[in-house]
Amino acid sequence: MFERFTNKRRRGAKRNGKRRGKPMGREVLAWAAGLRQNPWAFFVAGLGLGIVVGVALAVHRGPAPNLVASTQQAGSVPPKFAPPPSPPASAVMPPPPASPLPRAPAGKAAWQQFALAMPATDGRPVIAIVIDDMGIDKADAARVIGLRGPLTIAFMSYATELDSQARAARAAGDEIWMHIPMEPLDGEVDAGPNVLKTDLTPEEIRRRLDWALARLPGIVGVNNHMGSKFTQYSPGMTVVMEDLRARGLAFLDSRTIAATVASQVAGRMGVPHIDRDVFIDNDESVQAVLRQLEETERVAVKRGHALAIGHPHPTTIAALQQWLPTLKAKGFVLVPASALLRLELSSAG
């Protein structure tokens, strides 16, 4: 049937005096033989054919799709460029400021650079009052800064607006330290973000410590927030002291547990360090705080110096408002914590 259709089509073409289609017989064979005899002609013909086919395919398929645009329109991102998953809300922490922790000039440690001047004591016993946990409650922090000084202010590492709060404290004549969360014995107690823990690698301890120290330039040193478990952990405290030594910073052991090894490790590592003598507000009533301040006086008379730690509770602030104006008449000198560092170094020398 196909043959009858072809013959009929040819007869119709002759009757009309026309030739339909291209020569596919002897002419095509002769043309191909000519190409074989001339390789360059064969190459050019093949190249032209490839170009024609490529253009035809491009026209047929249309322009290449825009992957970025199409995925954005679909509300997704290609896996290769997908951002890391967001941390849980409990792990989100305020970022460090753009400026890094200042480095002390050659020959002078950072703690000496940023310490307040040592007041004249004239042989009188000296007392340093450290208020830590500062910066979380801005109103209470401002009331502490408004007290008669010089006080030693230890800002919580994860508090916000640290730069402005620290500037206010310095302008009031107070000394600035950093209060860093460390692991307590009670695992259910939340010590705060980036807490230093005994199950962390040395690299992670350094990362968390560096995060905290980068948040507040110009500090004298650090003291521990909680830490009844971590301050007993010699390997972890060694990592902390290595970092503090490299930065020229001091350490104040809050002594949240008697078995702490913090000062022992600091001494071995050559880090200037001091210890807390009295907690003044474990009982937060005003009268209890005043009794602990009297205990601080007794320690200062006996040893020549004393260091007490309190917190920005309204009752602690009220007790300090009563007690601070009486010190001079009682024969005591209020000093920053760095003054006790100097006393320790001079007695050791």
Structural commentary:
It is a single chain. By secondary structure, the chain is α/β, with parallel strands linked by helices. The chain has two domains: 2-61, no CATH class; 110-348, Glycoside hydrolase/deacetylase (TIM Barrel, Alpha-Beta Barrel), CATH 3.20.20.370. 45% of the residues lie in helices and 13% in strands. Strands 1, 2, 3, 4, 5, 6, 7, 8 and 9 form a nine-stranded parallel β-sheet that branches. α7 (162-171) links the parallel β2 and β3 (175-182). It is globular, with a radius of gyration of 40 Å. The model is unreliable at 1-33 and 52-104 (pLDDT under 50).
Compose a concise summary of this entry.
The chain is 45% helix and 13% strand. By secondary structure, it is α/β, with parallel strands linked by helices. The chain folds into two domains: 2-61, no CATH class; 110-348, TIM Barrel, CATH 3.20.20.
Layout of strands and helices, then pairs:
Elements: H1 2-15, H2 26-37, H3 39-61, H4 67-73, H5 110-114, E1 126-134, H6 138-145, E2 152-156, H7 162-171, E3 175-182, H8 202-214, E4 221-226, H9 234-247, E5 250-253, H10 262-269, E6 273-275, E7 278-279, H11 286-303, E8 305-310, H12 314-323, H13 327-330, E9 333-334, H14 337-348
Helix pairs in contact: 8-9, 9-10, 11-12
> How many distinct beta strands?
9
What's the Cα radius of gyration? 40 Å
- The quaternary structure here is single chain
Sum up the overall morphology in one term: globular
Series of H and E elements: HHHHHEHEHEHEHEHEEHEHHEH
Distance between the termini: 119 Å
CATH architecture of the largest domain, by name, is: Alpha-Beta Barrel
Structural class: alpha/beta
- Average predicted local confidence, pLDDT: 80
Count of folded domains = 2
**Biggest sheet layout:** 9 strands, parallel
Specify the CATH homologous superfamily of the largest domain.
Glycoside hydrolase/deacetylase
Our count of helices gives 14
Runs in which pLDDT lies below 50 for 5 or more consecutive residues are 1-33, 52-104
| Helical residues, percent | 40-55%
CATH class of the largest domain: Alpha Beta
Enter the CATH topology name of the largest domain: TIM Barrel
User: What fraction of residues sit in β-strands?
Assistant: 5-15%
